[in-house]
């Protein structure tokens, strides 16, 4: 930062080699320092030209008055069967930083020490060099990616039946909004994770719990729930259910699909943990969608 004061706005800074020799530091240190200054808006880097002192920042425009939104979003929702206000406290708890030394088990993100950063960086670099990588992709996703997901799901699923979204939660949101109109019930496993309830309520749906035991969702209670509520959608996690870890057994898998088909309902299969299994684990059951030729199951994975 002290070096910047020697140059006028727009002035060119010494080359990286000159800075290395002047301060007797490594090239990596100089690169990191310039990157930090660029991130703070103090330096502008131009490939092939060098680094330059940034122009002074213009005054930040005065913030607008958005207080009207509080009134608009808090309007009377008595006419709605299910108000779309969402209690996000459960989700916010899972997103808060844990105390030092705590190992979290409430999310699906690897600890930084376990992330293959070099492999990911190399893959990202290769992807960025592909022809058309920076063009606008198809709305339904890259054909190659859709074909890969279709092969992974198996059964009669083809690339034409695959839609690429921004992530698992986005896919569940899209499925619920497509399959269930606001105000209608949606069956969910009990217990389930806070994000599932938030997505359902944000879509204006009424979550109805169906108990889960060590073998997954209970078929007799699922059938009773469909009959009592008239629901047309069930969201379940047949593999490593969150938070119980239950795996739906072969007989129950067939029963769940049969019950939903008899009720004229869809099953949204949240297959979030398939790629997180240990290497020494026994073979995993195929996705429900792979054994469903009738289009009852909407398979979601990431």
CATH class bucket of the largest domain: Alpha Beta
CATH topology (fold) name of the largest domain: Aspartate Aminotransferase, domain 2
Mean pLDDT: 86
Order of helices and strands: HHEEHHHHHEHEEHEHEE
Rg over alpha carbons? 26 Å
The CATH superfamily name of the largest domain is: Type I PLP-dependent aspartate aminotransferase-like (Major domain)
How much of the residues is beta strand, in percent?
5-15%
Please, how many helices? 10
CATH-scheme architecture of the largest domain? 3-Layer(aba) Sandwich
First-residue to last-residue Cα separation: 43 Å
Q: Structural class of the secondary elements? A: alpha/beta
User: Which stretches are poorly predicted, pLDDT < 50 over at least 5 residues?
Assistant: none
Give the total of beta strands: 8
Helix content: 25-40%
Spatial order of the strands forming the largest sheet: 5-4-3-6-7-8
Number of domains: 2
Report on this structure.
It is a single chain. This protein folds into 2 domains: 3-53, Winged helix-like DNA-binding domain superfamily/Winged helix DNA-binding domain (Arc Repressor Mutant, subunit A); 140-300, Type I PLP-dependent aspartate aminotransferase-like (Major domain) (Aspartate Aminotransferase, domain 2, 3-Layer(aba) Sandwich). Helices cover 34% and strands 12% of the residues. The protein has helices at 16-23, 27-39, 67-73, 89-95, 117-128, 143-153, 168-179, 194-202, 219-229, 250-262; strands at residues 43-46, 50-53, 185-190, 206-213, 216-217, 233-236, 266-270, 297-300. Strand 6, helix 10 (250-262) and strand 7 form a beta-alpha-beta unit. Helix 9 (219-229) packs parallel to helix 10. The mean pLDDT is 86.
């Amino acid at each position: 930062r002290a070096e910047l004061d020697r140059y006028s706005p727009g002035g060119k800074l010494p080359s990286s080699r000159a800075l290395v020799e002047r301060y007797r530091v490594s090239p990596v240190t100089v690169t990191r320092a310039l990157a930090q200054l660029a991130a703070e808006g103090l330096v502008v880097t131009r490939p092939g030209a060098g680094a330059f002192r940034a122009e002074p920042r213009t005054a930040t425009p005065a913030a607008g008055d958005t207080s009207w939104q509080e009134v608009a979003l808090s309007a009377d929702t008595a006419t709605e069967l299910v108000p779309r206000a969402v209690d996000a406290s459960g989700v916010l708890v899972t997103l808060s930083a844990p105390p030092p030394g705590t190992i979290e088990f409430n999310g699906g993100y690897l600890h930084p020490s376990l992330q293959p950063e070099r492999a990911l960086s190399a893959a990202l670099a290769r992807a960025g060099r592909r022809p058309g990588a920076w063009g606008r992709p198809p709305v339904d996703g890259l054909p190659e990616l859709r074909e890969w997901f279709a092969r992974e799901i198996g059964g009669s699923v083809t690339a034409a039946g695959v839609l690429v979204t921004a992530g698992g939660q986005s896919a569940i949101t899209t499925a619920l909004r497509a399959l269930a109109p606001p105000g209608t019930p949606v069956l969910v496993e009990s217990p389930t994770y806070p994000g599932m309830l938030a997505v359902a309520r944000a879509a204006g749906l009424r979550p109805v719990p169906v108990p889960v035991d060590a073998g997954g969702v209970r078929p007799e209670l699922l059938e009773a729930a469909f009959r009592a509520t008239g629901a047309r959608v069930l969201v379940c996690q047949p593999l490593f259910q969150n938070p119980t870890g239950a795996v739906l057994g072969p007989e129950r898998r067939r029963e769940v699909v049969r019950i939903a088909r008899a009720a004229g309902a869809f099953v949204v299969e949240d297959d979030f943990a398939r790629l997180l299994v240990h290497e020494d684990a026994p073979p995993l059951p195929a996705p429900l969608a792979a054994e469903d030729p009738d289009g009852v199951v909407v398979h979601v994975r990431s």
